[in-house]
Structure formats: structure tokens, C-alpha cells
Amino acid sequence: MSNSDNHDHDHGHRPPAPMVDEVSDFEALEVAVRELCIEKGLFTQDDHNEWTEYMHTLGPLPAARLVAKAWLDDDYKQLCIDDPVKASLEVGIDWITSMPSNFGTPSDYCNPRILVDAPKLKHVVVCTLCSCYPRPILGQSPEWYRTPNYRRRMVRWPRQVLSEFGLQLPEDVEIRVADSNQKTRYVVMPVRPEGTDGWSEDQLAEIVTRDCLIGVAQPHPDRKVDDKRPVISAIHPYGH
Amino acid sequence: MSKSHHVEKATGVGDPQCFKGEAPPPKFNVGDKVRIRNLPDIFYTRSQMYLREAEATVVKLVYESPPAEDEAWDNTDSPEWFYSLLFKQTDLWPDYPKKFEADTLETELSERWLEGL
Predict the structure, then answer these.
(1) What is d(CA A3, CA A8) in angstroms, rounded to the nearest whole number?
(2) A173 and A84 both lie in a single domain
(3) Is B60 exposed, middle or buried (0-12, 13-18, 19+ CB in 10 A)?
(4) I want to staple A62 with a disulfide (CB 3.0 to 4.6 A). Which of A91, A104, B40, B86 is the partner?
(5) A132 included as an active-site residue
């Protein structure tokens, strides 16, 4: 390691926070509310285990399949626009009867909407309030989606934020930011990229990654996983 | 297991689907120009400050539902129409670059937040 690790003077360094099994205030609150619900008989511990396991089975594959099907079938694409709940059934997702509530939860209200991109129109989704996300069809949101940084900046400087994700759009493309602040949960249907002629539904579904469905990336024939987020070092790190 | 009336109503039907037909007729139609009202929002709202007093165009009547300001208190007595609204970014943010004048933002608000232009 470099010499900087060996310095013997004190200019305000603090050791990094220890990585211990601390319980945050929110975790303590969740446990307290959960135990209260179980004591009151609203649900059982077995119910809770079942729901937790169910949440971990969710992911973006059904939404990727939905987009791939729509790329190949104009009637299905129209169904995605007119009745996304019905269109979701064809990829195995029932918004209405999914666990735990059978009518949607605050984060999964049953009003999905598919935002269809065009060559001169690019949608991108954010929830400025907190973390609304189409979880039944897209799984848990990525950590960055829930950060104040993304939420407050995406509505205000969408072109700059998209370029930080590696997506630089020409001036003549309209960017439409969808702020998911009520009961609609948005999924972006990107434009089918060039170089995919003759591809099967399976092949197409593989390139529709989670980031494409949020709108911060465009599908590319050579990319089947989302790019890693760049880590930009702080200019003035904490403690200096 | 006891259930509130909202749960009974929504189970197997969906929320906001369970409020269909309960709102008074919509005051606005697709294409109408509206201004967002700056109402007081003591305790709870989902109507963001950056939208207040901005102008927008109605692009879709999306569903009927109790507004979030009521629903937060388990008051589901007065559902109203919700609208998907399109804003020009240059209207929302004074220094949004003019060369990106075509950029827009779409979001939803309930009827009480809108006044016709």
C-alpha cells in the first residue's frame, strides 16, 4: 500500500464505520410493526415467510418477455397499450391476485402502464416521492432507483443523468420523464434495435434488460446484462 | 381475520379498479389545458411542489380513486378522476436549456389539483 496509510499526524481522519450487525431504525420499526400485526392476528409468521419468499422470486424477465412479444406482434403491442393487466397475464403475471394483498400494495397498485418509445421519443421512469416501481413484473427496484440523488435529479436534469448512465440522446429526441407519484406503475417499451432482424422471441427477450425497462438504457444486440454503474470518486472525500 | 371495507372491496378486483364508477363525471377531457393548484397539504400529499402552479395538458383520464390526501386517513368516501398530465420541461424549470424545448414530463394528479385554463 502507499505511504499515505502510514502517516502519523492527525488531521481529522476517522476510522471507517465498523460493519457490524447493527439494526437500523427502519429495520427496528419494521420488526415492531410486523410483530404487532402477528400478535393482532392480521397475518401469521408463516404468511410473512411465504410473502418474503414470493418477493424474492420476482424479477424483470416477464417484462422483458412482454416487450419481445410486442416487438413481434402488433396486436399484442396494442393490447399492452390498451390493457396492460391483460397483456401481463400472457407473460405469467397477474397484477390483481399477486401476493400479499390480492389487490396490489402501495408499491404495486394494479394500474400498470406501458410507455412506448418511438425513434424520436424516449421515456424514462422515476418516482420522486420514494420508490414506486412495477414490482410484480419487474421485481425489486435497484438501489440507485431509490436514492434521493436519482429521484431529485432525473426530473430536473434528465439528459445529464441519462448520460451518467451512458445514454446520450440526440437533441432532436424528446425525453419524456414519467414521475410515478400516484397509482400507475410504468414500464418502458424501448424501440427494437437494429441488427435483430429475424430474431426469435427468446433472443429478443434476452437483450431487454432491467435498465431498458426503466428507461435508462437502450437495448443493444450485443448486450444481455446491464452495464455496471460507474463509481466516481468523491472530489472531497469525507474527513479531508 | 378482520378486514377493513377497502380490503374487502379491493380483493380480487384490484386497486384502483375497485373505485370504478364512483367518481363524479370528469371535469376535464383529453387535450384540455390546466393549471396545477397550490393547495394546502397538511400531513400528507403526493402532489409534488415542483408541479404547483405549472401549466399542463391532459393526455389521459387514468382511473377513479380517492385522492392520496384522503386515502392516507382511510377516507375512501370521495373518489375523483385522476389525469395523466404532460408538462413542458422548460415550463417547470426556468433554466432548462431552450434547445431541448421538446423535452417533457408526464405525471398524474387528481381532479382537485387542477383548474381549467
Answers:
(1) 11
(2) yes
(3) middle
(4) A91
(5) yes
